[in-house]
Amino acid sequence: MQECGKGLVDIKIDGERLLLALPEPQFREPAASHVAAVADGLGVRAAHIQRAAIVDVGPVWFTVQLVTGDAVRALAPDMSKLAALSAIGVTGINVFGLYPTSAEANLEVRSFAPGEGIPEDPVCGSGNGCVAALIRRDGVLNARAYSASQGRCVGRDGQVIVQFQGNTIWLGGHAVTCVEGSLRV
Q1: Rounded Cα gap, residues 64 and 95, in angstroms
Q2: CATH of the domain at 50
Q3: How far apart are CA 106 and CA 161, in angstroms?
Q4: Looking at the domain assignment, is residue 19 inside a domain?
Q5: What is the pLDDT of residues 112-128, one digit of tens each?
Q6: N or C terminus: which one in the chain shows less Cβ crowding within 10 Å?
Q7: How far apart are CA 41 and CA 90, in angstroms?
Q8: CA distance 44 to 110
Q9: Looking at the domain assignment, is residue 118 inside a domain?
């Protein structure tokens, strides 16, 4: 168990992977003008956004679905326009699209939080949690589990595993230690 801003979070070990139980998501429907602003910041037409929701799992992500994972990877967003969207009370913009025939992953995710000083998070747990919550709410995938690819656009090749068990969404994967340290008091 781990404590975070949303309270206590269950953690489990699945083979070599560590997974956490997503806090109960809260949804808000975005205004059409906000969807248009997100589309403009992403450099796509609003009609290319298949679904949109503001999802709160601790961090609050404006989460949108594009038609394919390839469309998500092709994005060249305007970071200043996306940063301005923090004024509506979101951490950032989270985008996903499906890969119907990929053997590597079921979908592609990108998480942009330039208003928080993070132009693009290479692998974002809360962003993937919001995607999973929206997928479950809207029945986007008929599956008990899926894998999401994230980070290739910033030189990483992350993969997040999502499992739906009852009312719980589990997400996680493998991690690499990049920095170690200790504090002396």
Answers
A1: 5
A2: 3.10.310.10
A3: 10
A4: no
A5: 999 999 999 999 999 99
A6: C
A7: 14
A8: 15
A9: yes
Q: Find the Cα–Cα–Cα–Cα dihedral 148, 151, 153, 154, rounded to 10°.
A: 180
Q: Is the pLDDT score of 31 beyond 90?
A: yes
User: Who's near 69: CB < 8 A, 6+ residues apart?
Assistant: 96, 97, 98, 99, 102, 105, 107, 108, 149
State whether residue 163 is helix, strand or coil: strand
pLDDT by residue (tens digit) across 79-117? 999 999 999 999 999 999 999 876 778 999 999 999 999
Are β-strands 107-113 and 145-150 bridged in parallel, bridged antiparallel, or unpaired?
A: parallel
pLDDT score at 18 = 87
Residue 13 has pLDDT above 80, yes or no: yes
- Does residue 148 fall inside a structural domain? yes
Q: Which domain holds residue 142?
A: 24-163
- Dihedrals phi, psi of 170, to nearest 5 degrees: -105, 135
pTM of the model: 0.91
Q: Residue 126 falls within a domain, yes or no? A: yes
Look at the chain and report how many structural domains it folds into.
1
d(CA 134, CA 118): 23
